[in-house]
Design goal:
The chain is an all-alpha fold. It is 70% helix and 0% strand. It has 6 helices and no strands.
Length: 97
């Protein structure tokens, strides 16, 4: 969060995503949500929607309410069926470290 918001350090989205990933891979629900959102907030045209779906669905499965809400937006407005299928596959293959 410090890198994302520039608290005590220079704001750096890439560095924030790196640390979110480390925690998300250990199955930390808030980091999974934040990592998914960082993929969603990528520069327009570079979003990896399947990766957004993967991390947000993992957070939603653990009860993260904001992830659950955003999942409905992803599925109904932002993603193609193929992207959803790829995101579901990535989520199924996820193994915490």
């Amino acid at each position: 969060l410090c890198y994302e918001h520039g608290n005590g350090v220079a704001a750096n989205r890439v560095e924030a995503a790196k640390w979110y990933r480390k925690a998300a891979e250990q199955n930390y629900v808030d980091a999974q949500f934040n990592l998914g959102m960082s993929y969603e907030e990528a520069d327009p045209g570079t979003e990896d929607w399947a990766e957004v779906y993967k991390w947000l669905s993992l957070a939603a499965m653990q009860g993260h309410e904001r992830a659950k809400k955003f999942m409905t937006v992803l599925e109904s407005k932002l993603m193609t069926p193929e992207q959803i299928a790829q995101g579901q596959k990535r989520a199924r293959e996820f193994k915490p470290r």
